[in-house]
Amino acid sequence: MPSLNVSFSDEEMEGVRAAAAAEGKSLKQYLHDLGVREMHRRRFVAGAVTWADRLRGEFDEAFPDEVPPSGRGGGAAAA
Description:
mainly alpha, elongated
């Protein structure tokens, strides 16, 4: 099974150890889960974007007066 050596500064390592302890996990398990969780998050976001793009036309037809935040003057801050 592949493995990985990761270097941290003393300060970073202290923070990572504290985060692992807060979740009740070993350092190895915490770092493994962190990488897997990020992979799943990226997959979810890509799926959500695909879903939104697929339904955008239908939404625009159903709610013609709605202007997406990107179409407003202030971008996302206008929402």
